[in-house]
Amino acid sequence: MSDSKSKCLGVLTSGGDAPGMNAAVRAVVRTALECGAQVYAIYEGYQGMVAGGEYIAKMNWDSVGGILQQGGTSIGSARCAEFRKREGRQKAARNLVSRGIDRLVIIGGDGSLTGANIFRQEWPELLAELAEAGEITQEEVDAHPQLAIVGLVGSIDNDMFGTDMTIGADTALHRITEAVDAISTTAASHHRTFVIEVMGRHCGYLALMSGLATGANWVLIPENPPNVDNWEELMCQRLKAGRDIGRRHSTVIVAEGAQDRFGNPITSSYVKQVLEERLGVDVRITILGHVQRGGSPSAFDRYMSTVLGHAAVEELLSAAAVKEPLLVGIRQHDVISSPLMDSVKETQQVAKVIADQDYETAMAMRGGSFSDSFRTLRTLLRAQPHAPSPDQRQLRLAVLHCGGPAPGMNTAVRAAVRLGLDKGHTMLAVRNGFVGLADGDVDEMDWMSVSGWVSRGGAELGTNRSIPMLKDFYAIARQIEKHSIDGLLMIGGWDGYQAAYEVFRRRDRFPTFDIPIVCLPASIDNNLPGSQLSIGADTALNCIISAVDKIKQSAVASRRCFVVQVMGGDCGYLALIAGLGTGAERVYLPEESLSLLDLQTDVDQLVEGFQLGKRLGLMIRNEHADPLYTVDFMCPLFEKEGGDLFDVRQAILGHMQQGGDPSPFDRIQATRLAANCIDFLIAQAARPSPTAAAIGLHGGKIQFTGLEDLPRLSDKEFRRPKDQWWLGLRHIARIMAQPGPSSTALDAAAPCETEIP
Ligand code: ADP
User: 644: buried, middle or exposed (CB in 10 Å: 19+, 13-18, 0-12)?
Assistant: First the structure.
């Protein structure tokens, strides 16, 4: 982008801080430098823009080094009353123009973005007035006729239109989920009831999703108050019913903006009072407060904010952003941009609709997956399923795993069992995968048999990689017949998909196989055809980034290069996204060939970097990146060539990546996918020739791919899909890792971040 050289942009974080803002600022700065533009950080939000001076600082490559893993915003944020007034905005305009800045990336909530839009509208007039007052020259006015704006939404509430997720929301869900999981263990010890208040003044996203992710027993959100006059009685009945069937504790999650259907606020203390008075139970309140904003950003927030920061600069340097202000957001994994003010207006409209008690519209505006999640939650928090209707066909649906363990498998089983039971069907659990199915290791599940599974890592039903062969099919056919299985849900990885496909393609020979079959993608490798994402990968990524954060800290006392090896089989997803989330300077993927020349180049870059003052090198390597250039080859090579400049250590993260409790995202998606799988099995069982399919996430939507299409979509030799969407992110990882053209050798040697003035 040669014409970017004359372009000069500013980046600021404004309003409430959100984890991931640093990743976005880092990506904005590095992408701008890569494009040859000049970039300034505006410290303390609009306050720094109005104050000028040292609050507006030119950034170089290293100004944003070491901030990716930090929570909050290292360039500061503030609320600024002065910017709400025209005089304040005039000062801000002068401070920008005098530095040649006429493009801004604003990372903030709807308030900050509204302010940005007003500023942009007034810009030509403000500049004309400044010229008239002699504060700037006419040449400056002519050089900057417009102010271009791109907004990124930083808000833990996930309350904004124009993006599926806002920066910080996923991390906030991590904080809430960790807290609720912890509270659940102590609550269970004492038969206690906990009321937990989470943030969200106009948006119930955090309450709803944390309720889904933790198995809460009652959830109150602003958008959908209980639709009965006496909701207190209903809540008490439900919690009592749970106690009666043996639940050891109850959790009620209240969004801070919860209200009843007449618009009266529902506070956590009111909920406590109601429960104590009517149920005579011991109730404790925990208001999570600012804990939800804090801490290191999650893997998703680091990755998403990096991708959005990169896209924001690309938009800002293009003609589109000059025409109208844009909001850059994400739809599942696709970056989308939309007119900024349309999104802001729609966001503000939901708050108005809630205030007007028009809850139906509020839920409709939140979108399909929000409403679906709410419906699913309402079923899952029941103490027992609805009774089957007398005229319905009661199906016998079996659930099993196959493949490596993936966090979220238990969550998916729990949702499938409860939702199937609630629809009046018999739910069967097959232990130990297809081996267990052939052996008839099949049990009936009831509502409480999956209690506590929502948050539990591992796979309670057992999983293995065994794919049925020859006589196994006869045994499986016999067991399907014996247990009258009407449908099969396989929750697992590559081997599970292959096993399900082998059963499916023998339908001609075994008529009992002519039942609906559905595969739910669960593999940390994220290597399954028919879905952009599989359950478990997000947990594994979070495991990797927290391990790498610690590894990086361990190197403070020495000059060291780490080669970290991650799992993934022949799929480099974990390596690349972990590279984006940890700031690795080089990622080795099995999808790319690796030559000695490549390694030589990497060594040269390392040597050059350390000569210029760098203290830490980080290379992330997928376990199958190359069969011969292994960690044991690479480390001695780097060590020898590094001489006295740096030493080299390897870290093979191993099976810890498959373990641990599932992340909130994995729990939510496992639940969502399982709900859709049960609907699929029920619908297909009613058809004369039921189909078999794999469920998947595509651009935020749930889709089914016929099992017959899997061979066409799969690269069988390398056990990965032929089309891997995330490979398109490699250039962003490269840009983030290498100094751009405008960064001089001196810049690269700069010791650390710019200090906040
Ligand atoms: P958020 O961006 O998180 O919604 P606020 O609503 O507090 O947070 O806005 C942050 C800052 O953005 C405010 O302190 C103010 O400086 C600026 N701002 C917000 N709304 C406006 C507005 N209508 N006009 C001008 N500036 C605004």
Answer: exposed
